[in-house]
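Bug report (template v2)

What were you trying to do?
Predict the complex of my protein with 2-(butylsulfanyl)adenosine.

What happened?
Run completed; filing so the output is reviewed.

Input:
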Amino acid sequence: MAAKSKDPDQKIESLREKIRHHERLYYVLDQPEISDADFDKLMQQVKDLEAEHPDLITADSPTQRVGGKPREGFVKIAHSSPMLSLDNTYSEEELRDWERRVHELSGRRDVDYVCELKLDGMSLALIYEDGKLVRGITRGDGSIGEDVTLNVRTVRSVPLSVPKEKLKKAGIPPDFEVRGELLMPLAAFKRMNEERERKGLSLFANPRNATAGTVRQLESRVTAERRLDYFSYMLLKNGRTYFDRHSKTLDALDAAGFKVNQSRKLVHNIDEAWTFIRQWEEKRESLPYEIDGIVIKVDRTALQDELGFTGKAPRWAIAYKYAARAGITKLEDIRVQVGRTGKLTPVAMLAPVLIGGTTVRNATLHNMDEIGRLGVKIGDWVQVERGGDVIPKVAKVIEDKDHPRGTRTFEMPEKCPVCGTKVVRTEGEVDYRCVNANCPAKLRETILHFASRGVMNIDGMGDALVNQLTERGLVKNVADLYKLTKADFLSLERMGDKSAQNILDEIANSKKLPLERVIYGLGIRMVGERTAQFLSEHFGSMEALESAGIEELQSVNEVGPRIAESIVEFFGIAANRKLIGRLREAGLTLTGQKKQRGSKLAGKTFVLTGTLVHFTRDEAKQMIEDAGGKVTGSVSKKTDYVVAGADAGSKLDKAKELGVKVIDEKGMKGIL
Ligand code: IVH
């Protein structure tokens, strides 16, 4: 612990150093030495000190990983040299052809190669100046990418700065560029999709799509929650490879504290590379992330330069791609599953088939459009693929003389298979849904959503408890939560007097939460946190919202025809109206403060920067939003005004560069 007598500057820096050390142990080396709680304590100390001494906040402080401010689109940035892709091979023969070409073009046969895992994410460039991360850029079209710095900063395995001595020791200059792969580990992917399912959002098909979607998030807070990982595999200086061997590059990156994949190997010919490929074909099942092949790179930079590249891929590297793990089996039936939002998903029931070591019994068919695209019928033989996807999927129908076609066409049921309510398909939408709020299939997920931290914040109401409550019929809808007694809880497994009282207190406390949370908690399709807030401000009561028509709903900020329709549909169902009545009886907060947002600044976007004197940032933001304007975190061409306080830095420069209007606090008051 830093001694009390140290000045805050030193104290903060020594704490930051500790945090960086433990971050590296945890995120890069996978060998934590302290508990998460102790780590959080260190972080809190820095946060506290920074709150006391805002002037000591630096861009590379570990606290600055989490941004949180929504931003407009992303700024385009040119790469220092093209970000190339790789040519693919699918067989040993093709691989040996490639080796032959390398031999011919270079005129030598003693070529060393480095074998690396081909990580299934997206490539990303990191620009460091004076050892500090200044920019993270997506590949884009290879020549021009997007500036995703704020999101990249939230990735723990990306060093925000590298100490000078460390760079020196590793032989890396202070200004350099790292390229590597950004990816979402399978566990994070699974967790994210489960949460999205609960929230009624569409699911990402695989970790690669999820990575791309996450790094292009406008809110870096969201990126931070999703736990992306980054492996480095290139080091450039002025757009050119820096070391004379690729193997040295990887070792140097490693030494400087970058996360470099440890499953790499320097080999002396393609026979050895082939052995590496074969080994990983099996072993890849046990990796915590997806790989789709092996990359083989010529080790010597001089030789790489000699070989050059064709089109978009280097001649000095090649990807060997593994075949998708697939199997052929009979589709015996198609059943329908109901999710929290009532979405009906057709699921293929398969004759059990072993794919990549796992027995697969069912596979998703996503929706009716997908069934149409595949042309699949019950009784067909199908090819099933298992990728990084959560659930295996039906890839195609097999049509040949050994595999006769099925005959039964699947149709979406007209009634929910669980509760029997008529199923609805909104015009222009792919999915069919059950709109009964009391449908038991939706119940479990609905309650978990209602009780979650961002909604009614009922701490302790997790999976296990909700399972018991719903299975025993103690809770049939969210209103039942407020009827539960201590005796009810004590009748459950693993529930003592103290825990029972705690959860009862939590439930009671939730009644005080504002109207917007209750609206959000109802799980009305397409009504997220922000929309719920606008609805609450506009209507001021659940009663007014319940009886609102499409037109009035559409006059609410950010509510379009589809959301309006979804709300009307929800309140059109008697069971839902009854539920609200019971929440009212239970004493939840169903009225709120009406708030008229002005229209004076409607459509205008502001960026606040520097130190404001007359009001805090939050106050200024509130004033702008009250007048209908929007406040974002970074300056782009779409910004209308930059409000610059004292010591405004890069955002002010950016505004000037883009010709965005800059005003001071007085100017802002004037506009308001
Ligand atoms: S090297 C010129 N190494 O695969 C060198 N790429 O299909 C190009 N990838 O765009 C990249 N793992 O996103 C390299 N160990 C690895 C890789 C890797 C995954 C990705 C990368 C690239 C794509 C090409």
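What did the reviewer find?
The pocket of 2-(butylsulfanyl)adenosine is lined by residues 84-86, 116, 118-119, 122-123, 181, 233, 295, 314, 317, 319 (CB under 6 Å). DSSP finds 25 helices and 25 strands in the chain.
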